[in-house]
Design brief:
Number of helices: 3
Keywords: Membrane, Transmembrane, Transmembrane helix
InterPro entries: MT1774/Rv1733c-like
Order of helices and strands: HHEEEEEH
Distance between the termini: 41 Å
Strand content: 15-25%
Number of domains: 2
Helix content: 55-70%
Structural class: alpha+beta
Shape: elongated
């Protein structure tokens, strides 16, 4: 059997005299939730592509405007994440200031830093791995929140449907119970 037709029958479409109207409504709600879930996945994929394209442009711009150079520490870093250092830019200008270092670096140690066009120390340009991680975290978090919201909404929408179903079962049993008991 065609998988689409089988799914349609499972969610409440098709000829089945035993399927009550409440079952058809519940199937329709679940089917709509599946479609919304598929739309969330498609929108997430498009968002991920857009984010990756944007961040790739940022990475290209940063790589074009930032230069790697070597700085010499002027003081021990101790446990601090920064230390005072001096460095020379490509045009020969001397600069000094705080730079990011590993803990326990000693004065006179050389560290690699990145500088902008003005010679100021800046963060290293983002790379491909940074972009992949950024997109993965954004999509993972966004999809998780979206599907939790969808699941919560589905739960709230199905509450009255389940009450209706329970009420229908009670009515059906009230009609059937007297006949059932006579066969015992």
């Amino acid at each position: 059997m065609n998988p689409v037709l089988r799914l349609a029958r499972q969610v409440g479409f098709g000829r089945n005299e035993l399927r009550r109207p409440v079952d058809r409504v519940d199937g329709l709600v679940v089917g709509l939730a599946v479609l919304v879930g598929a739309a969330i996945v498609a929108a997430g994929a498009l968002f991920g592509l857009r984010l990756a394209t944007y961040e790739s442009g940022v990475a290209t711009q940063q790589q074009a405007t930032r230069t790697a150079t070597t700085a010499v520490l002027l003081a021990d870093s101790g446990t601090a994440p920064t230390a005072l250092a001096r460095w020379k830019t490509a045009d020969g200008t001397n600069h000094s200031g705080p730079v990011t270092v590993m803990p326990q670096q000693h004065a006179g140690a050389s560290v690699r830093i990145w500088t902008n066009a003005a010679g100021a120390a800046v963060d290293r340009p983002i790379g491909t791995l940074d972009i992949v991680l950024m997109v993965a975290v954004a999509l993972g978090g966004g999809m998780t929140v979206a599907f939790l919201l969808l699941r919560g909404l589905l739960f709230l929408v199905r509450l009255p449907i389940q009450r209706w179903s329970a009420h229908t079962w009670d009515q059906d049993w009230a009609r059937t119970a007297p006949r059932w008991k006579q066969w015992r």
